Structures are given as C-alpha cells and as structure tokens.
Amino acid sequence: MQRTRFIILGGYLGAGKTTLALALAKQLKERHGKSVAVITNDQGNALVDTAYMKDSGVDVREVLGGCFCSHFDEFIKSARSLVNMGRPDIIIAEPIGTSTNILASVVVPLREMYPEEFEVAPLFIVVDSSKAMETMAQKSSFGLGGGRMIPSHQVHEAEVVLLTKVDKVDGDILDMAKGIVQSEVPEATVMAVSAKAGTGLSEVVDMVLSERTSSKAALGVDNRLFSTEKATMGWYSGTADLDAKGKVDLYDLSMRVMRVVGDTYGGERIGHVKLVLESSSASLKMSLVGDSAQIDGIKGGRYAEGRCSAILNARVMAPPSDIRKVMEKALRSSIEETGATIAVYADSAIEPIPENPVHFRSGQ
Ligand SMILES: Nc1nc2c(ncn2[C@@H]2O[C@H](COP(=O)(O)OP(=O)(O)OP(=O)(O)O)[C@@H](O)[C@H]2O)c(=O)[nH]1
Ligand SMILES: [Mg+2]
Predict the structure, then answer these.
(1) Which of 174, 201, 229 finishes a domain?
(2) Same domain, 179 and 277
(3) CATH code where residue 289 lies
(4) Relative to the alpha carbon of 272, which ligand is closest?
(5) How confident is the model at residue 335 (pLDDT cuts 50, 70, 90)?
(6) Which ligand is located closest to the Cα atom of residue 195?
(7) Residue 18 near ligand 1, beta carbon < 6 Å
(8) pLDDT tens digits for 258-304?
C-alpha cells in the first residue's frame, strides 16, 4: 500500500501555519492533483482553525486537550481515520503554536514507529519574516517579563524553515531574516514564502512533493525549561449562537471584538486571537496577532441574516480567569451592540499545564 506523506508544520502562535497549510492544500490539489487532509491541534474544544479548514473544503481532524505529543495515540488515530476515509496523498499536521520538542516527541517517534504507513517529510517550521529577530532572540525563561525561549527552540528543531508573510517585508528585512536563521540553524533549508501573495509557494510545494524525508536527530531539550513560559500564555475558547434580528454586519462585529481585546491587553501580551463568524449565507474570519488585526477570509459578503455562530479562540499572556472575563465581555457586548441576541453561550479558559509526552527521544 502507498504510504501517506506526513508534513508537520510547526511554528509560533500566529506565524502563519494555518494560512500556509490551506494555500499548500489548494495548490497541491489544483496543480498537481494531490489530495490533502489536515490535523489541527489545540487545548480548547472549539477551534477556529478547524472551522476555517472545513469552510475551505479541506478534510480535517482535530486533536484537542493538549499537544500531539501528549495525545500521540489519538494523533495516530486521527491520521488513520483520514487515510481510511479519504486516502489523502498528504496529511498536514499543525501542532499548537507553543509546542516544544516536536522533533523529539512527534516527528522521530512517527518515523520510527510507523514506517510502513507513513512517510515523514522534514520538519517544517514557519516563521513570520517580519518577526525573525524577535523569534530568534533567546531570552531567559527564568526572568520575569515574558522572555521567550520557545520560538527560537522551535526554529532550532527545523529541517526546513519557511520564512512567511514576505509580502509584508522589504528585501533588506528578508535578507536579514534569512541570514539570522541560516546562521543559527546552518543545516536547515531556508525558504521564503507568502501564503497571501503566492510568492515562493511553488518552491514549497516542490519540497512537499519531493522524496526528502525527515532525518534530523532529536534535540530532546528538557521540557521543564519551557514550563514557566508556557504557563504565562492563557487559553480561551468560546462559542456563541446568535440571532441577527434582521441583518448583522460581520465585519463590524469582529472589529468591535478585536478592539476591546486589543485595548485591554495591548500587542505585547497578545499571542493570537481569532474569531470565525458563520451563517448559512455569509462567513468571516478575523485574526489579531500582536497589534495587527487582519481579515483572513470573507464569504458571501459581510452581512449575515438569521442564525449565526461565533467561535473565539485566544492565547494571551494573562491569567485564565482574567482572559475569560475580558473575552466574554468583548464577544457578548459586541454582539449586543449590533442588535443581535445571544441564544447560547459557552466558554472555557485554561492555564496550560506541563505536557507529558508519550514518547520522548533525548538528544544524542
Ligand atoms: N500578509 C500576510 N499575512 C499572512 C500570511 N500568512 C498568514 N498571514 C496572517 O497572519 C495571521 C495568522 O495566521 P495563521 O495562519 O492563523 O497563523 P497560525 O500560525 O496558524 O496561528 P496559530 O494557529 O494561532 O498558532 C492571519 O491574520 C493571517 O491572515 C502571509 O503570507 N501574508
Ligand atoms: Mg493555526
């Protein structure tokens, strides 16, 4: 039986993993006739990324409640279920943006344990090219003030680094980003891409379709090093069913939500806040990464009528109880301001707990 090729697409919160996964899936299908399925991963129980993939017609499974590494069996089950249902040529798996030791606890076990079923491509790590300096700056996790070790650790695990969002930066910045990454991870292949503008996408597709497989030894960094940093990034997941009472402007509604969140926390504390609004005739997705809000997709126009649903996900540097209050208020008050009423509201906020990888290959 033909093995399914696995692409693991890691990278920090908001780096552009989901957007790139979707762009790759489209190009692989349209230009190469390849079918692609996706596995999403997060802590919460209602994922914007999953809704967005489904909306775009991609076959998707999700692993909830923690990283692929601590739910490894479920991760494999999801992959097998995709294979059984749709026989995709390629599965793209997107780990949580704060995942660490992806090589040690996902990629290497996958390539060692299931060689008959899965072919594992080199580990791809997505880096926002406008944030390369910040990503590679290795601050100590022991100091207070939110120093970050995780983004740089992720890049050190990479076999292929995808510097994305190149449409946002000029040539000098991109050259600098390439230089920093290449000097820190000399053995990695560094590629520049824009999922939005399509620049460099064909080269990434070629790499996806190549026969290159993952071969890098696990770094196996002690996960305790990252626990303080992980614990500072609270999680929120909320869903609301609303009745538009006439028409509701989805763009206006999402801007209101993001404005409240942005004004409350400021860009420094915001990892990624994302919102999907859907009705039978229209849908919209908006993202706030740091202080930059962007419409990621709009279908059927900006106005919705009748019943709508909202999914709000957030990773913010704040205690979960605080995040929950702010997010609920942001979503509820914004909905009410548009004249719509809320029929059902459910949410949860979680403080990340240390991961417990099922498999862990220590560095050699
Ligand atoms: N300009 C530009 N924006 C992009 C590009 N790729 C992604 N973005 C935007 O960056 C934001 C985050 O993108 P996502 O793809 O959701 O990022 P992610 O890495 O999946 O985020 P998490 O799953 O939360 O970790 C969205 O607003 C995207 O539209 C790109 O190539 N160019
Ligand atoms: Mg994503």
Answers:
(1) 229
(2) no
(3) 3.30.70
(4) 1
(5) very high
(6) 1
(7) yes
(8) 999 999 999 999 999 999 999 999 999 999 999 999 999 999 999 99
